[in-house]
Amino acid sequence: MAKKPDKSLVVGLDIGTSKIVAIVGEIQPDGVVEVVGLGSYPSRGLRRGVVVDMASTEHAIQRAVEEAELMAGCEIHSVFGGISGNHIRSQNSDGTVAIKDKEVSESDVDRVLEAARAIPLSADQKILHVLPQEYVLDNQDGIRQPIGMAGVRLEAHVHVVTAALAATQNVGKCVSRCGLTVDELIITPLASSYSALSEDEKELGVCMIDIGAGTTDMAVFIDGAIRHTACIPIAGDQVTNDIAVGLRTPTQHAEDIKIKYACALEQLAGHDETIQVPSVGDRSSKRLARQTLAQWVEPRYRELYSLVMAELRRSGYENMVRSGLALTGGGAMMEGAVELAEEVFHMPVRLATPQYVTGLSNVVSNPVHATGVGLLIYGSQADGARSLSGSAQGESWLGRVQSWFRGEF
Hints:
By secondary structure, this protein is an alpha/beta fold. It folds into 3 domains: about 1-90 and about 165-195 and about 355-409, Nucleotidyltransferase, domain 5; about 90-160, Dna Ligase, domain 1, CATH 3.30.1490; about 200-350, 2-Layer Sandwich (Nucleotidyltransferase, domain 5). The chain is built from 12 helices and 20 strands. Strands 1, 2, 3, 6, 11, 19 and 20 form a 7-stranded mixed beta sheet that branches. Helix 4 (about 190-195) packs across helix 11 and helix 6 packs across helix 7 (about 250-260).
């Protein structure tokens, strides 16, 4: 069977606390990404976004990638990986340079960004992102793309994101042991913003809250640029643990109960609704009012939202988030999560689902996949988008070997 033509593919690898998700997208001529494959596998090797078991994480990555390869009919060689964790820090910085030829060139922009990234950095930290917010050209501010403009002095305002060197290296090792190359590591809130937020929201001002299993990530956008990012170490796993302890049920059953029946706002749970709760050991299961379950869940969500509110106030952008909040991630899907957020923050709140892709959009159009889809979009816009070998389903073993040789040599 003839080999399928090479396709311009990009792969996002969401390395989460509860699961590893690999999503394959094909970049269309118009730049839109068509999702052609998805693989997911439970993760047991991470805690709050940080690798604690290399072998388990490597196995989960391998299985997720293999499943995505099978669905997409391709061989994956490189990925854009998502990273999170309480070790991630961010700050805003400035840089200034003189323009060489009285007209801003690409090298001038590179130099001013290099100057802006010159921040005090400890030996155990590394810079992940230098994200331009705006440029100032001879005291004229608000410039977004200065190349080609006339001037003598260029200044850049940027958002610098750093991460623990060991944490990034461990993620990179897990991926490389699966025979893959990491094109780039992207922090989770930045990736999610590419799929979950609209340009209008970013312009008007929005705070995105990505509630995962191990961490809750937030990102603030004002005037179209990212202004603040943070990671809060309270998320879905803490809610599961509260349910397990409060209802005296095994953790796995607590997770199932959370997904099926939990409600973040007690008043939304019906008075006459009951649920079956398995007990620990060989004890018989018991019936429980759903409202009682909500009494365990609501305080944890209120605590989480209060921490996000405190971080938003600390950033100084609280009064500039004019379009409100966008909730995404698996934890945002719980009934009552949006209503409780509106009550706590006193501003509009919406549930943000991944957008801006085609193909398997009905499969990935779920807040759970906000980061994975965002990684695809980020990768499609990056210079490093790879052209990978797409081997047809059912292609002969000889064809696959030939494809491998073409990719290696």
